[in-house]
Write a structure and sequence with these properties.
Elements (H helix, E strand, L loop, with lengths): L1 H21 L20 H5 L13 H6 L19 H11 L1
Bound molecules: zinc ion (ZN).
Zinc ion binds next to helix 2.
């Protein structure tokens, strides 16, 4: 039984390596291969994301936009958007690819 697990682990390792050749999992921003299975950015690029922390601030700027226009519960934006930033790249990838 141990031998089967050993062989299965190696087969999985080789298949993963082959899949990486065809469909490389690289950071969308810098091309680094140090990313985990479900992430699209490497830890370095993720650390550079401009988080707003609006969800922790009551009556934040996003809430104020909707005051008097429509009833809305707590709201916020996760990231600040600026042109030519990682956030713009992520939105482009999400929207068009
Ligand atoms: Zn990166």
């Amino acid at each position: 039984m141990k031998r089967i697990k050993y062989i299965a682990l190696h087969v999985k390792k080789y298949l993963t390596g082959f899949l990486h050749l065809v469909y490389p999992k690289i950071c969308l921003h810098c091309g680094n291969t140090d990313i985990t299975k479900f992430h699209v950015l490497c830890p370095y690029c993720y650390a550079q994301l401009p988080f707003t922390d609006f969800f922790e601030i009551e009556n934040n700027n996003i809430d104020k936009i909707f005051w008097g226009r429509m009833p809305l519960g707590p709201s916020g934006a996760a990231l600040f958007f600026t042109k030519n930033s990682i956030v713009q790249l992520l939105l482009f990838e999400l929207k068009y690819k």
